[in-house]
Fold:
Amino acid sequence: MVSTMSSEVVDATNSQRIRQFGHRAIAGEQLTRDEALWLFGLESSADILDLLSAANRVREHFKGNKIHLCSIVNAKAGGCSENCKFCAQSTAYQGDSPRYGFIDRGPVKEAANEAERNGVTAVGLVAAWRGLKEGLVLDAVCDRIKEMAADGKTRPDASLGLIESQAVADRLKEAGLECYGHNLESSRNFFPNHCTTHTYEDRLQTIQYLKNAGIKICSGGIIGMGETREDRCDLALAVREIGAHVVPINILNPIPGTPYENNEPLPPFEILKTIACFRLINPRKEIMIAGGRTVNLRDLQSMVFMAGASALMVGNYLTTLNQPVEKDLQMLKDLGLDSDWDHHGFDDQETGCGCSTNADLRDGELVEAVWAHWWVDGYRIVDFGDGCVSGGATLGTESRWLSGANGRDCADSGRYLGGAQAKGWLIEKLTMRSDLVFHALYRRFPQVERRFYLSSGIHEDETAGPLAIRALLQQDDFHDDAECWLLPCLNPTGFAKNRRENVAGIDLNRDYRKPKSEEFRAHLAWPKDKRRLNCAVCLHEGWEAQGFYLYAVTPQAFDWVSGSIIAAVSRVFPIEASNGTEGFPALWRNYSPASESNGLSGVPESLYLAQHHCGLGYTLETSSDFPLDVRVNALAAEVRAVWASVA
Structure:
């Protein structure tokens, strides 16, 4: 038995390091093997509780209070030719588990009906045999999957052993199979200790066939078979490498008649620690607690969610009993967790923004379009959208900021964001809809009378603005003697869909007079206690211009720009020489923000702010013809120049 309790003095630096690993997991930065091994090696209860807390934060960040439920139906029991030492269904051992052939549609339909009644997301067909080949058995399996898919009550899953050809995987996909369960079971190193009738590589090949067919992967393993912590760590890293969507963690329940019948059970804290490590290593995935939880965790079952679990297998297991579904549902209710899902997909797990590591950062090659999950070194910036674009193509639903103009890896930029939360930044979600992630940042100081406002990202094809705000945040280029209100991406759904308008087809910068979009209804109500602003700045880009230009929307704002702003910007970016940009001079002022006589259709954001909240208002523009990093630097310099002028 491996104990997780220690009499040694707790090292306070461990807590800081654990918290940092949690921040990095949220930011999308992968833990190294050495870092993961360090987590698995934690001994003291204080450190393990810190680890659980970090894992719980990661789970809540990516999953909220939602918990997926799944169940299985034993479609063919006993008589398995494989010699897996943990399994009572193997013919190699003398157990008393039931044996029967492949079931007909009745039990499958009954299992789907029960799952629907209990809010279970998925039902998996599970069979005790070596695997699937072409033939009558595959035909019967596909018939059951088609029936489950047509019924639509739950997601049709299956766990049917090894697959030895691409054709079989393709047949399963055509039948409607969405997710296939095929555990790696343990580390590559430990695998021969519990199975010799097939290899670890056989299992990897099965998973590759399934991925080629477009089937989602459910793959994890069993702990408590006698493996080391290093083996558990390598298993967690392996499921990350194969891209498993669901990661089941089974805890060995020693069954009489199997070679593991006398294995000593793992301590509950060791189990919880393992779950938490799997969460930090696989932060966006469904970490599912499956077989063995009732006998091994006992009264600590509910702590699996604090440890980072986001899915639960309910109902009975293959050869052992589970606690009643009603008890599991009550446990979730008592914890404030919700198993009521209106979809069965895996869209929330898409991670790759497809970023490369080219030395140059150019539009069409490497553009991060929207804000994303950041919580690094105590500074949290929550996602402002759900996609990133490159060359007109959506790359994924988790965007991460690029590290800068040199094109380093996305996660590398996290190291520059340290300490801002400690400086007073707060975050507010402006909408309640799950499909519209719209946040604002603000920083307030007691007895401060000056208030600055900064926004960007109103149009998808104007990508430099959000990146410029990121640069300003990284460098902490904000006044400590002024309140700051930031809206880094006003059009999250437009950025996610790679379109100038929002997902409803509305040009948000012409939606302020009579707002139709939820984005700007939320914007106009934020902040609820807003007072008059001293200065408002809106960041844009112009596709027709050859340099920097601005709109000064009030006479006093125009007076402020006489020299200082132009001089500051000219050091990093050319000034627009034409007097015909969009039909107006490069330095254009509008004395009547309440009117529409300026030729613009509708009222843009800058005019609305000038009319209602601010005497000094600027729209700062760069030319889109220049490289992205040059435009980002120019907009950041423009903001600094404006705020220096009004200080």
Remarks:
- Residues 351-419, 580-584, 588-601 have pLDDT under 50 and may be disordered.
- Residues 45-63 form the longest helix (19 residues).
- Residues 159 and 279 are 23 Å apart (CA to CA).
